[in-house]
Amino acid sequence: xxxxxxxxxxxxxxxxxxxxxxxxxxxxxxxxxxxxxxxxxxxxxxxxxxxxxxxxxxxxxxxxxxxxxxxxxxxxxxxxxxxxxxxxxxxxxxxxxxxxxxxxxxx
Length: 107
What we know:
- By secondary structure, this protein is an all-alpha fold.
- It has one domain (about 5-105).
- Helix content is about 80%, strand content about 0%.
């Protein structure tokens, strides 16, 4: 969950993107598609941590993966803030639903 200062930064990033690229349906689509790119980079870093590519060996650290996962989180928050009037409330409500669902499994 992002704190208010972090949401302020996200709003600033959205404003910057809006000023640079506008907020057309195509631009919003690209912001959402950017998530796939960032998730791919996180996966690539994890493959590098595990040395899964025998030609390359170990190429990344856990810190690299953490950085890439942060990029995923920020990109998702920017996309969410680009389509929601209250992204913080939307995230809070969704997180509460997920938490309730996870607790229901134990019942």
